[in-house]
Amino acid sequence: QVQLQESGPGLVLPSQTLSVTCNVSGTTLNPFYWSWIRQLPGKGLEWMGAIVSGGNVVYAPSLESRTSISGDTSKNTFTLHLTSVTPEDTAVYYCARHGIRFVYDYWGQGTQVAVSS
Asked: How far apart are alpha carbons 107 and 117 in whole angstroms?
């Protein structure tokens, strides 16, 4: 049974780096695609970026300058780092699995991260 579980800090100070990890069980990272998606308060889902088999990454253009995603196949995890956060980055952060056509088949339950002083 494939399961994804996000873990994050809960609260991050403005200008700091937000890091959220997705722990994957029941499957391996390769050869799938793994994305980070967030939901801002009162808004729809926003795709942030993805890591694909082989370690290649792609990012949403609006977030590319502040976003990095890395994977650890030995731990079966992948991690999102978002730098220079502001309160506008407060959101529920989700990880999800998909294929090349971005048809999502598994999601984590999401982790709430607030950016506040």
From this structure: 30
Say how far apart CA 92 and CA 10 lie, in whole Å: 10
Closest CA to 34 of 64, 92, 76, 75: 76
Distance CA 87, CA 28 (A): 34
Quote the tokens at residue 52. Answer: 């694909």
Beta-bridged to residue 24, according to DSSP, are 4
Quick one: which of 71, 70, 69 has its CA closest to 29? 71
User: Model confidence over 57-114: pLDDT tens digits?
Assistant: 999 999 999 999 999 999 999 999 999 999 999 999 999 999 888 899 999 999 999 9
With CA atoms as reference, report the closest residue to 28 among 93, 78, 67.
78
